[in-house]
Amino acid sequence: MMSRIRYAALGCLLILSTAQPSFAGSVYDYTLPSIDGGTLDLAAFKGQAVLVVNTASQCGFTPQYDGLQSLWETYKDRGLVVLGVPSNDFGGQEPGSRAEIKEFCSVNFDVDFPMSDKVVVRGDNAHPLYQWLAATLGASSRPRWNFYKYLIDANGQPVAYFSSMTRPQSSKITKAVEAALPR
Predict the structure, then answer these.
(1) CATH topology of domain 22-180
(2) Catalytic annotation on 105?
(3) Residue 96, phi then psi, degrees to nearest 5
(4) I need a surface site. Which of 2, 85, 143, 179 has the fewest CB within 10 A?
(5) DSSP strand pairing (149-152 vs 158-162)
(6) Whole-angstrom Cα distance, residue 51 to residue 63?
(7) Is the pTM of this model over 0.85?
(8) Which residues are bridge partners to 64 per DSSP?
(9) Which H or E run includes 151?
(10) Which of 31, 58, 59, 142 is catalytic?
């Protein structure tokens, strides 16, 4: 009888331990594939605020690249990193290769902020960074379309998210960025 209770208890523990994914402590614990090849280690941004944005080249929100570049230019010397994360998850609006995406962003928007290679940002196969963001900020923070924005403070913790409708240079974002910058 005792052995059945032990096995049942062990089984419950195994189920509980696999049901809850383990997440890192900060954004700096994650890596992304780089648009330039290799790995983009987010630890390189330690001590800086990071605005993570899932992007797409063929979306109605694609002109937001201009605002993201402007935000980057305005705040990079004060400790903000804008990080573009291309994704083809919404309407197949990012079909290109990493070289095509990089060229598109450079030629059309003069983008020079860091970018990852294409990743999945939603669903069960979402990149671990996006799973962590949803677990930390809540299920309602999951991206619903391209150009969802996540603000990470200088301690590597997510502090806000913004929908696709929120333009990068809106007062809502700039106020949040200024509050998240390193002191």
Answers:
(1) Glutaredoxin (3.40.30)
(2) no
(3) -75, 165
(4) 2
(5) antiparallel
(6) 17
(7) yes
(8) none
(9) strand 149-152
(10) 59
User: What phi, psi does 62 have (nearest 5°)?
Assistant: -55, -35
Whose tokens are 């291309």? That residue is 86
Instruction: State pLDDT tens for residues 2-39.
Output: 455 444 444 444 444 444 456 668 999 999 999 999 99
CB 81 within 8 A of CB 48: yes
The mean per-residue pLDDT over the stretch 100-117 comes to 98
The pLDDT, as a whole number, for residue 8 is 43
DSSP 97-118: -HHHHHHHHHHHH---S-BBPP
Annotated domain spans of the chain: 22-180
Residue with tokens 């993570």: 52
Tokens of 11: 């089984």
pLDDT tens digit sequence for 169-180:
999 999 999 999
Instruction: Identify the residue whose tokens are 């570049």.
Output: 69
